[in-house]
Design brief:
35% of the residues lie in helices and 20% in strands. By secondary structure, it is an alpha/beta fold. It folds into 2 domains: 229 residues, Rossmann fold, CATH 3.40.50; 94 residues, Response regulator (Rossmann fold, 3-Layer(aba) Sandwich). The longest helix is centred in the last third of the chain and has 22 residues. It starts with 9 loop residues before the first helix and ends in a 5-residue tail after the last helix.
């Protein structure tokens, strides 16, 4: 949603964003880095896309790990995610990625340190780092910058007037665009902007459980309306909905609120996202109805073409690495 009264501040925000990276020299890791990111403040499906890509790479025989900032975690030092751990320790998205992919996931405020830690676990082997939400993290050199875009974002403007973290011209840094299947308006807009990078298409599929009777739906994600609309489109009877802030940390007060809403609306169960279910962790026992998570999956179309492109790009990166470091030849 545009906040037109704040439009005069958008150039100031954009200038500050550009100044932040002036003079920054990206650090290189021993393994190639494939970044997954976007321009908006959230809601484009970066985490499900990262999960889908990690699974695809593993299926194709690549050794893959994931590097993440670990937003919302306690501390900022580099650490390996324990899939049995809690969101407060590692962040909700890294924990979800670790549980759904089985790949090693490493968190750290400085992703270069997280990458070094990852490579230390696999000494003598070569793999691929997936950098989750990495388009704005320019301290780490990468071989591929995958940027998720849609027509809504391409019609938006930078913060604080809009929801973009950078102006549209930042898309020139992208190596490839990932666009929701059927969003041809986004592809047309990219070409209007004279951006000729390859375009991958993907589908977002929500796994909605079959439940009889009314439910109370709640979530703490960037674009909650997408979640609620998906539940209703699947035929679920949503008696009430409640949206928390993105990455909301649940507490006792939230449990009282949700239990009260459930009683007043006659709901028979709670439905939330997988990411929110991770953050609920041990306080879920305070909810008086069953909690069901509706999963979101990303399916890459034309996987064979995606892999052929990636293999070619990574081969070029390996050749460049050999030229930069003669000892590797």
């Amino acid at each position: 949603m545009r906040r037109t009264w704040l439009a005069p501040l958008a150039p100031v925000y954009a200038a500050g964003s550009a100044l932040r990276w002036m003079g920054v020299r990206p650090k290189r890791l021993g393994w190639p880095v494939v970044s997954v990111g976007n321009l908006s403040t959230g809601g484009t499906g970066k985490t499900p896309f990262t999960i889908a890509l990690a699974r695809l790479l593993a299926r194709e025989g690549f050794r893959v790990d994931v590097l993440s900032r670990g937003y919302g975690r306690r501390g900022s030092g580099a650490a390996r995610v324990d899939p049995a751990g809690e969101a407060e320790e590692f962040g909700d998205e890294p924990l979800l990625i670790a549980r759904q992919t089985g790949a090693p996931v490493f968190v750290g405020g400085r992703r270069h340190e997280a990458g070094l830690l990852a490579e230390g676990f696999e000494s003598g082997r070569t793999g691929i780092h997936l950098l989750d939400d990495g388009f704005q993290h320019r301290q780490l050199a990468r071989a591929v910058d995958i940027v998720l875009v849609n027509s809504e974002d391409l019609a938006d403007c930078p913060l604080p007037a809009g929801n973009l973290r950078e102006p549209l011209r930042a898309l020139r840094r992208a190596t490839v665009f990932a666009v929701p299947a059927g969003d041809e308006a986004a592809v047309a807009r990219l070409r209007e902007l004279r951006l000729a990078q390859p375009v991958w298409r993907f589908r977002r599929e929500m796994a909605v459980p079959e439940l009889a009777g009314p439910v109370l739906a709640f979530c703490g994600i960037a674009r909650p309306e997408q979640f609620f609309a998906g539940l209703e489109a699947a035929g679920m009877q949503v008696a009430a909905r409640h949206a928390f802030r993105d990455h909301h940390r649940f507490g006792a007060g939230d449990l009282r609120l949700l239990n009260g809403l459930a009683k007043s609306t006659g709901a028979r169960a709670f439905v939330t996202t997988e990411k929110d279910r991770v953050r609920l962790a041990q306080i879920e026992v305070g909810l008086e109805l069953p909690v069901i998570a509706a999963g979101l999956r990303v399916v890459l179309e034309h996987e064979a073409g995606v892999m052929a492109w990636l293999r070619g790009r990574l081969a070029v990166e390996r050749s460049g690495a050999d030229l930069r470091n003669p000892a590797r030849r």
